[in-house]
Design brief:
Layout lengths: L2 H10 L7 H12 L7 E2 L2 H8 L7 E8 L5 H11 L9 E3 L4 E3 L9 E3 L14 E6 L4 E7 L5 H15 L15 H4 L9 H5 L16 E9 L1 H13 L4 H17 L3 E9 L16 E10 L6 H17 L7 H8 L4 H11 L5 E9 L11 E7 L8 E8 L2 E10 L1 H22 L2
Parallel strand pairs: 5-6, 11-13
Antiparallel strand pairs: 1-4, 2-7, 2-12, 3-4, 6-7, 8-14, 9-10, 13-14
Organism: Eisenbergiella massiliensis
Protein name: Condensation domain-containing protein
Length: 432
């Protein structure tokens, strides 16, 4: 039985007597669909929304500037960007799985404050911008229900373009449907490493706690070291992503004194289709569920790196990042959302240790006239204990390793320790 049939069968099995009223309500909404203004979400949007109680779906971009932005220009840019991405001014209806207009204005998006805490996506717009005039800092927060990390950057480029007074050449159309990505793709079988270690999971990197403090922690690799890393990775025919995963896995191995580490790794699905080149602010990220890394005490960094590179190439060639997405998208518009949510929680497990790479933030696309961005990095949402995610982004050859944590002071120490260990592992390899 294939994965699609398993998922559909499993989802249907969730339907029982206790769901009678919800099924009736769903049918009534379908009957009255023409009367309800719907700004629909897509299947991968719904996955992010479903997991909100464990990982609240937000992303952030932190910028430091050499002078303050023109707020009037910024407001105009945000308003103009709504022509391309109207959802940024809308709230998300978790019950019905859609974006709804609550009459928000640009004044509900831009504010002056020292920080941008987590906000409720069903109560406020999907975009938030905080300006700290005193420190010349700007934080831009975006809903992960609306878009993934790749297109978060696309929106930032659009905002910058509009702020600078330009008009994009592409049409007023945001391509959010993932169906074109799934066409004519054959998903290969799991790799040998994945099959052999399918039951292995990595223990959490920090303890559970009731701490409510929020920490945004960073460790930086500066241009000289980053250029060395880039050149060495090119010579060895590996990617920087391979290098980052290798360093992270080796640090986890030592912290837990284990010899097999499993790390999930996100993947941009646009590269598998004709979506490249089109304007998208959407969720089109798949995931290599298990990058298995075996690390023996005698293994050097280069040996581990070679293993990671081979595993990544195998999984890419077999399109393993698309596993489960086609049946999810097929069933998304055919069954009630509350049933689908149960299926998602059953099939899409969130691991306590994770990794994401936002990639390069292009300084030729993200800039503001008469104002220089001196520092910039992107990061994911604040993780509740005991979860931990390392986020990586690069701006003007400064690579930022980041984690955002909710917890107590010991979590801050743990998080910074891990980031510094990973950075040192990377730099040591570059210098050998």
């Amino acid at each position: 039985m294939n994965v699609g049939k398993c998922i559909i069968t499993g989802i249907i099995g969730f339907v029982g007597i206790g769901f009678k009223e919800k099924v009736i309500s769903f049918c009534q909404r379908k009957a009255n669909k023409a009367q309800i203004p719907i700004n629909k979400c897509e299947s991968l949007d719904f996955v992010e929304a479903t997991h909100r109680h464990k990982v609240y779906p937000l992303m952030y971009c932190y910028m430091e500037l050499d002078r303050n932005l023109d707020i009037d220009q910024l407001q105009i840019a945000v308003i103009r960007s709504c022509q391309y991405v109207p959802e940024i001014l809308q709230a998300y209806d978790f019950a019905r799985g859609r974006f709804i207009d609550k009459g928000f204005t640009v004044g509900d998006i831009i504010s002056h404050a020292s920080d941008l805490p987590q906000w409720k996506l069903d109560k406020r717009p999907q975009l938030q911008i905080v300006i700290n005039d005193e420190k010349k800092k700007m934080i831009i927060g975006m809903s992960h229900i609306l878009t993934d990390g790749v297109d978060f950057l696309q929106y930032l480029y659009l905002l910058s373009f509009l702020y600078n007074g330009h008009t994009p050449a592409f049409p007023l159309e945001n391509c959010r449907d993932i169906a074109p990505v799934l066409k004519n793709v054959h998903i290969g079988r799991a790799t040998e490493q994945t099959r052999q270690h399918k039951h292995i999971t990595v223990p959490p990197l920090r303890k559970s706690s009731n701490g409510k403090k929020q920490f945004c922690l960073c460790s930086h690799i500066y241009p000289e070291d980053f250029s060395t890393l880039y050149c060495k990775s090119r010579k060895q025919n590996v990617t920087l992503n391979d290098v980052f995963i290798t360093a992270y896995a080796r640090v986890i191995s030592r912290l837990h004194e284990i010899q097999t580490v499993v790390i999930p790794c996100p993947a941009d699905l646009r590269k598998f289709s004709s979506m490249q080149g089109k304007f998208t602010v959407a969720n089109m990220t798949g995931i290599y569920r298990k990058i298995v890394v075996e690390i023996k005490p005698q293994h050097s960094f280069s040996q581990t790196l070679s293993q990671v590179h081979i595993e990544m190439e195998l999984q890419k060639s077999r399109f393993r990042c698309l596993v489960g997405i086609r049946p999810l998208d097929y069933t998304f518009h055919k069954i009630p959302r509350f049933i689908l949510a149960l299926g998602i929680k059953w099939f899409y497990h969130l691991l306590p240790v994770s990794y994401t790479n936002f990639g390069k933030i292009d300084h030729t696309k993200l800039f503001f006239n008469n104002c220089k961005i001196t520092s910039c990095y992107t990061t994911g949402t604040y993780r509740f204990p005991p979860d931990f995610q390392i986020s990586i982004s690069t701006f003007q050859n400064v690579c930022t390793l980041n984690c955002t944590l909710t917890g107590q002071d010991t979590d801050k120490m743990t998080g910074q320790h891990i980031l510094d260990k990973v950075k040192n592992e990377i730099i040591d390899w570059g210098n050998t």
